[in-house]
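Z., the sequence and structure:
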Amino acid sequence: MTLMTLFTAPKPFTNPHIATIQRNAIRSWTALPDVEVVLMGEEEGLAESAAELGVRHIAQVRRNTSGTPLVSSMFELARQLNDSPLLACVNADILLLPDFVDAARHALARTERFLVVGQRWDLDVTEGMDFSSGWADHLLTDLNVRGKLHARTGSDYFIYPRDCFIKIPDFAIGRAGWDNWMIYEARQRGWKVMDATESVQIVHQNHDYSHFADGKPHYRQPETFENIRLAGGKRMIFHLMDSDSRLVDGKLLPARPGWIKFWREVEIFPLVKLHSYPLAQVTYAIFHPSRAYRDLRAYLHRKSGEPG
């Protein structure tokens, strides 16, 4: 039995740069100990790449009307594949290092139900990487010179026990919103949300958005707006700052205190403790009156059919 099943739904391997960074990412995963790697979907070049890289391929993933794989289907399939105690959904452009597995082991030893997330490092990678002996040290050296720590917004990996996240809305993978819901869902269920940024260095290989027909980033796609609707609304859009603990050197520590964190916890209290969206709207309006007013105006315009 492996410790962890890593799964993802890659983009088509038709764009040379996208194909290169996805192969880099998957090869870094296969270099980790005690994991199984699973690629999901029917995108062009995926089956061939899975065979080339020696990883498992599952083609039968449910999709939405736009043809995008559904997160709900991916999570369900990952759970059915084997009996590994941990599952991890990871974006297909992310390079992983051995500290990823170490953090997963530490989290599993600390509590039964949890979600491990963390910030990423952004790095320009344009060529296939050499994964011979010492590759991880070379990558870390390069990262220290050229890498940039990404803001605490979107999440690129999720480590969780197999009995968590059994029921997930039909989110579109690769679009914004669903990753934020994962943090909200864990918090409102009382599971530990561990920010592992101080223990885990994941590397995002920078790329453009030419794989989208309109060239717009994922957070501006119509499917992102649908993801937010499926999540239950904008108030469910949580970020890494909404973690309630940190995973540091194998220890589980409280989230860093501070006034920003304190007031954010007050703001989301109606959601994570009282499970009340109306009260969450009230606290949001108190903390962000200008934004709340703009949201109200936009809502009224949509209801009336007038242009925004």
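The mean pLDDT is 93. The radius of gyration is 20 Å.

Let me know what you think.
H.
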